Amino acid sequence: MSNDEETAKADGGTASRSETAEDERSEEHPLEWDEPENNDKAPDERDSVSHRTEKYDDRKLVTGQAKYTADYEERYPDLAYAAVVRSDIPHGRVTDINTSAAEAMDGVDAVLTPESDAVPDAKYTSAGQSYPEPSPWDMHVLNEHVRYIGDPIAAVAAEDRATATAAVESIEVSYEKYDYVTDPEDAFDEDAPQLFEDGEVENEIVGHDYDRNRMAHIGGELGDVDAALDGDTHVHETEWETIRQSHANVEKHTSLAYTNEDDRHVLITSTQVPNHTRRQLAHLFDIPIRDIRVQKPRVGGGFGGKQAMVIEPIPLALSLATDRPVLYEASREEEFYAMRSRHPMKVKAKTAVTEDGDIKAIDIYALSNTGAYGSHGMTVAGNVGSKPMPLYSKVPNARFEADIVHTNTPQTGAMRGYGAPQGTLALEGHLDEVARDLGLDPIEFRRRHHMEVGDLDEIAGMMGGEGANRRIRSCGLDECIERGKDAIGYDDLEQPDEDHLHRGIGMALSAQGTGVAGDELGAAQIMMNEDGSFHLQVGGVDIGTGADTAFLQIAAEVLGCDEGEIIVKSSDTDVTPFDYGAYASSTTYISGMAVKKAAEDAKERILNWGSKLLGEPVGDLETGDGTVYSEASDDSVTLEDIGYEAAYGDDEREHILGKGTHCTEESPPPFAAQFADVTVDETTGEFEVQKLVVAVDCGVAINPGMAEGQIEGANHMSYEMAVSDGITLDDEGRAEVADFDEYGLPSATETPPIESILVETHEPTGPFGAKSVAEVPTNTVPPALSNAVRDAVGVRIREMPITAEKIRSKLDEREI
Amino acid sequence: MPKTGGNVVDIELTINGERTTVEAGSADDLATVLRQHGYIGVKCGCDGGTCGASKVFVDGEVRMACGMEAADADGSEIQTVAALGTQADLHPVQQAFVDNFAVQCGFCIPGMVIQAVALLDSNPDPTEREVREALDDNVCRCTGYQKPVEAVLDAAERMRGEQSVAADGGQSVSASPRGAESTGCCGGGCDE
């Protein structure tokens, strides 16, 4: 399969800003949007949307009755348990796997190695993305050539967990050791140990150069950046570094595989991407898509770590080999060393700025460490540029380039923010530094250049891919800044009484997208029961975000009933309509719009029946309060009467069904303004963050309580990127973190109060004006805190995490 | 019933008010055993004793069930989250978590609720700092702790309000886990 078409978008060429082209693009991307009248409701007209509706699964969750994948254990009396042998060397070839002790062990049902018939030979990527997949096929389910400490080599199924673990421990692996490399700059050297031979990888990505361990190179330019840098401007250059962050989803990766009574292969699995996983399994195991069923129960957090088929092939292979249901639940140690993490990056930012503060050019370069395999490598790196840079749409010249390089370190993947946090740190830290150098107010400096309604986003479009030439139709940035400033007390900051303590405020802006422009699909179906209640079947994937509740609110708003009258069933590939899955901040916008369309389709049928029963024209009828009522006569008929009449009527009958499917070229950015209030002790470098404030424009929040929760959780994750070491590695690339007590996830006492502010705008392309919320506040704390420390004591920390030692060391340098 | 590892031993427990003898592998932790007997509100998010999702009351003390051997609980009274309230009649702490949108994926919530109930039992009027300290070894990846902290403070206020009503002759609500002295966990309607 060729991936040229997909990756060509990201490679792109050079765009220009000629006026003719601008006119043509204006026709292609008009500001006006043909929005249905019912999509734009004033707050007091909304019956369900933008209400703080109780999250529909909360009562089950707080009573401990909700079922996650591992909770299905009791349903399968003949369940076997899986465990995996993983490489304990960073690079080499397996020369022998001695499984005899494991196979002789009581209670061991199967031991699989790369040679086993049940183990697929095919190459694949674990990345759960659209098709053709924009990630290289460079992985095997079980490996002879191991490329990091954690690569899977063999798998066991046994009667119980303890036996499975004992069997794994008894397996002896012999290796021919290869040279290894763990630093991405070293790996990029021509003489470095090479992870992949040329031609070894299928579905290669643009710019790959495996002789230098490069899986991809991407870039794009708007205008002429070099000319601007050579002009009569101040040129600033800064370099930034980010951590290897763990998703740390409290529910570990867990999958249960079996073949059911209809000979169909069922995966109950903790995933963000049921439909992609089904397609990927079909490819790997050479089974028709129709014969695989992927069911997503409650999921205990994903954050991108489950936007991948990380473990599913292993229990499926074991289940096929044993003819039994098999459960594989990763250990927490495996979560840290063998699942996925955020790509650590070095990002350079360069700008050309005139004396009076006009930015003439922004130039960003990222070196991304994708680890041993390339899943999400190119696309995450693309977002380092394509998410933060468009924020400054008034800047005439912009360039972005990235090299994505393999090392013998654990696998990376998608993670909330998807490259935007790395780019936002570099750009927002850099602009703050430039403003201070030029004696400009950092906020005013940004205000002169940031995006506003009506802009054509050519910067996201410069690489030709995601969000190409978006027209901006909603933007609450100015209000985000104003309300954030008020909440943090920006204009009346009081310094501590003690001379050695200094208080500072830092801010950062951010933009994300809402779905992958032109590369999303969501679908939904609504069935009416005879009592006037409904079943909503939707492919959209609730991984703990509250998406199911948002779907109910959207459907109830259209159908004019209480949310409790609707039963939602999501994410079961046999039952629910197709969906790309929970990623790219798409669910409310894409899947939610599919729900709205399905509800409108059902409503059209309902109004027809209402017309028949009331004897009035459809044009006079509306739904509300569980009825169809006439705006002309005030007469009404209940949805229950309509349901019974439609199902059991004398002369005519119909099952009222509505269907909706949604795709779009649009990907409107949500916006955030972040503020951090820090006090630094200049004698020790120790610092305390008093408060984080983040104001977010997510259009109309479908459920403000859930939206605030998304913002606060994202900001906590962002705070971790600013103050935590993440997953540190030893010289061989071995994760030094094995459990939560060794990982720097800020605890309740270590987390500052987070104030989330919802700034409502109306996004005409989204369901009832909504755009995304869950990723944009992930991007902003590292730069805001770096800027706050700079504001407090005048030193700049560019390498995350920010620590007392680094601040102290910079203060010492300054004193000298 | 799912199988256990190691030699099987019999353990006497009173779980959510119900006396029972359970079979457990000699090496099994208490969380595994409780889960094997259907108490799925006991969650396992780590490799033993670090994430707090498996918190239960053992003889009135909060313990991470995954961090103790089941055999060590022999003869104990256990209360899981299922002892606190039902979906139709939530414990005030559970109700406050729902009302304050403190629940996202929900995986850490049973442990957090247990810890919050224990806090309010000993300290009915905690400060925000005291709430944060109480929840300090409950790992939550979704919420940033903001809404859970707000929920516990809200629950404290609600429970103080109810107790002052009780002092006037109204119905009393104890911060102790309900069902601890009754038989069955919730009067029907729950899996446990």
How would a crystallographer describe the biggest sheet of chain A? 7 strands, mixed
* CATH class value of the largest domain in chain A: Alpha Beta
Q: Portion of residues in helices of chain A?
A: 25-40%
Question: Which structural class is indicated by helix and strand composition of chain A?
Answer: alpha+beta
- Count of structural domains of chain A: 3
Largest sheet of chain B: 5 strands, mixed
Biased composition (Basic and acidic residues) (chain A): 26-61
Domain Aldehyde oxidase/xanthine dehydrogenase a/b hammerhead (chain A): 63-179
Keywords (chain A): Molybdenum, Oxidoreductase
Organism (chain A): Haloarcula argentinensis
Protein architecture, described:
Chain A folds into three domains: 52-64 and 521-662, 2-Layer Sandwich (Aldehyde Oxidoreductase, domain 4); 76-178 and 252-299 and 306-338, Aldehyde oxidase/xanthine dehydrogenase, a/b hammerhead (Aldehyde Oxidoreductase, domain 3), CATH 3.90.1170; 345-516 and 666-815, Aldehyde Oxidoreductase, domain 4, CATH 3.30.365.10. The N and C termini of chain A lie far apart (60 Å). Chain A is built from 21 helices and 29 strands. With 816 residues, chain A is of the alpha+beta class. Chain B has 192 residues and is an alpha+beta fold. Chain B has two domains: 8-83, Ubiquitin-like (UB roll); 92-167, Orthogonal Bundle (DNA polymerase, domain 1), CATH 1.10.150. In chain B, strands 2-1-5-3-4 form a five-stranded mixed sheet, covered by helices on one side. In chain B, helix 2 (92-99) crosses helix 5. Chain B is globular. The two termini of chain B are 14 Å apart. Chains A and B meet through helix 3, helix 5 and helix 19 of A and helix 1, helix 2, helix 3, helix 4 and helix 5 of B. Chain B: Residues 80-152 form the [2Fe-2S]-binding domain. Chain B: Residues 163-192 are annotated as: Disordered. Chain B: Residues 14-72 form the 2Fe-2S ferredoxin-type domain. Chain B: Pfam families: Fer2 (PF00111), Fer2_2 (PF01799). Chain B: Keywords: 2Fe-2S, Iron, Iron-sulfur, Metal-binding, Oxidoreductase.
